[in-house]
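Lab notebook, bench 4. Still working through the backlog of constructs that have no structural model yet. Next entry is a single chain of 366 residues. Request: give me the structure tokens for it.
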Amino acid sequence: MQPRALLLPLALIACDDIAEPGVEYAEPSPIVAGEQFKADGLDPDLGEACPANRMIARVQGVCPAVAGWQARKLFSEDDDGEAVQPVAGLDEFCLYAMQGEPTLRQRRNLQRQLRGRGLTSDCRVAAPLGTPFDDIVGPGMRRAFAKAINPPGRIAGTPSAVRIAVVDTSPRYYFWGRARGGNSAHGLTIGRIIRAGTCGPDGAVAGACAGFISHHLGLPRLHDGTVDRGEGGFYGHQSEPAIAVVAAVKAWRDWQAAGQQPAKERLVINLSLGWDGAYGGAMDWANPNPNAQLRGGVLAMYRALEYATCSGALVIAAAGNDTGGLPVPTGPMYPAGWEQVSATALQCQRYGVDPPASGAPYQPLL
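Model written out:
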């Protein structure tokens, strides 16, 4: 199986001032220098990057109660923190969390009760892909990008046939692609870039855009580790963008079922985020089940993308850039590193859906 090359200019630009005629935006909150989550010297050795107070196990049925730990099905909440019914095929993931660091006894107790169920830490390494030099190189890149994409003119009377779900730092918000300027401008910026390429000069008017943009909070964490669902965050645990991906698909399907969108509206999920492959994602192709060794949060994202693809969504993820220096690059960022993986009909049956019809020899995961 040959890898499929993907080019995603959107994901390679972290900018915040693409303007669209006739559209007003609230100014984002001031950006803290170097706001993108950095490992701060953390090595991928299950140290601070993979905390002991947020663990994921795979359990069929009810998540066993363990003293001192809060347990729930991982996908029993959406990106808004609202309770939802987990999708069939995703209900095996159990999240165990607590405030503060667990004692040695609490850790051993959790490990003992969940032995053989793939208990692993949910690493907090999912981050928006950008650069601290955006202020320097951003303006020139923005001008070149806007010129290169040749935005369309007014598309009068044409309903949106494509929904673009931006899984990023911005909270869920729907108003023709507009997002609140929250703690990080990254998600807002990605939405603006997409709007610049899909809307004409009357982009704020219903029917004037070739694509309808929705935002889903996949990176809800502040620098102190707390969650801010109102204004969004800067980074996330590996399972958190997975939750947002599933929420985006379910929202899209629910809207169609309710007749709020055209039945033939397509879904594109944009992931301008990722984590270094050192924190998990490489497939063991010598194993009949190549994803068997994936850590809990990583496998949750893999399965979320399977569900999205099997449901008919097109997922586009940023692979990152080769810095050309040290540390030695470990390959593409994940989840983009799974571009060579396919979603088969057998896999789609796990979620109770049939894979979309396609003339391609295989249905790519993203």
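Notes after review: Strands lie at 54-58, 70-73, 93-97, 120-121, 127-128, 162-168, 211-217, 266-271, 273-274, 314-317. The longest strand covers residues 162-168. Flag for follow-up if needed.
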